[in-house]
Hints:
Helices cover 42% and strands 15% of the residues. By secondary structure, the protein is of the alpha/beta class. The protein has 2 domains: 6-265, 3-Layer(aba) Sandwich (Aspartate Aminotransferase, domain 2), CATH 3.40.640; 267-377, Alpha-Beta Complex (Aspartate Aminotransferase, domain 1). β8 (225-228) and β9 form a beta hairpin. It is globular and about 75 Å long. The mean pLDDT is 97. The protein binds pyridoxal-5'-phosphate. Pyridoxal-5'-phosphate (PLP) binds at residues 62-64, 89, 91-92, 140, 144, 169, 171-172, 192, 203, 336.
Amino acid sequence: xxxxxxxxxxxxxxxxxxxxxxxxxxxxxxxxxxxxxxxxxxxxxxxxxxxxxxxxxxxxxxxxxxxxxxxxxxxxxxxxxxxxxxxxxxxxxxxxxxxxxxxxxxxxxxxxxxxxxxxxxxxxxxxxxxxxxxxxxxxxxxxxxxxxxxxxxxxxxxxxxxxxxxxxxxxxxxxxxxxxxxxxxxxxxxxxxxxxxxxxxxxxxxxxxxxxxxxxxxxxxxxxxxxxxxxxxxxxxxxxxxxxxxxxxxxxxxxxxxxxxxxxxxxxxxxxxxxxxxxxxxxxxxxxxxxxxxxxxxxxxxxxxxxxxxxxxxxxxxxxxxxxxxxxxxxxxxxxxxxxxxxxxxxxxxxxxxxxxxxxxxxxxxxxxxxxxxxxxxx
Length: 379
Ligand SMILES: Cc1ncc(COP(=O)(O)O)c(C=O)c1O
């Protein structure tokens, strides 16, 4: 989760203070203001991901909900194959596990290279092994474990050639790298607001019009229909067909404000800043005897993330000490990627995530403090 800038907080407050109504139902003026604000936010997000049409942007709670929507509503048939990587966040693993068990599908895992980078060779091999049975490829486009991004265009090209749809879990891509759904050709892309300066409890699912039209219903209720009788319903058009019930309007508006804020600064600039800081952090951690870093040796391949362990120290103790001594907030544990840690027989790691508001001074403080913490582990 990130800090939130003033324009995002102001946009949320403005909704609650000036037009706290719902969209799409009432004709009074407050409701019309919500309609306009939601329309504007959807259009902003459309541009943020370079989608073709506003209706290809579905607002929902978070990345997890977006992936569950696709997993549960995609028209799989028995024997179809779903491919994930060996580094997936639980949110891009469990929905596929569950649907595979429920519908008699095969879930298979594409192993990464030795250095934890994506293996196109392993991926292509899996596609050819299954000879047209792979119907969904679901990969995290940037890993929350080690910050590594995957070659999205090449993945989509190979998957489409093999007759499969592609979903990218972009929870860690949207905040840190430029997202261009049309350039990559992905069928579905999901991300969350709270990792990109936006509110929590709001996220989005992109789907090309053709891909979304291919899906069955997921959650249904108010907003998803044009008309009902007791026994039948006439369904709404996209995007409302998938946005059931009253929406998180403040969240949608705040997410739009966050996307505008990021665009104004420029994702390329953010990426550059994070890499500069991450190199500094990486160098500092590597200089500590017994420190290990997860992922490729070259810090520039890991965006703004350094996931590490200090010899003789529990990751949770490292995080607790940094928080108590210098107000440095890092994550520790399995980072919702338990399957990867189980495979590698590791308990977890400490993970420092850098963002646009972090500074070289902060990294220097973090490294100095980690050096003190590392001394405790060597006793
Ligand atoms: C790569 C990745 N995927 C999915 C998620 C799930 O995001 P959310 O909890 O917002 O649905 C996260 C968040 O930790 C993540 O880092």
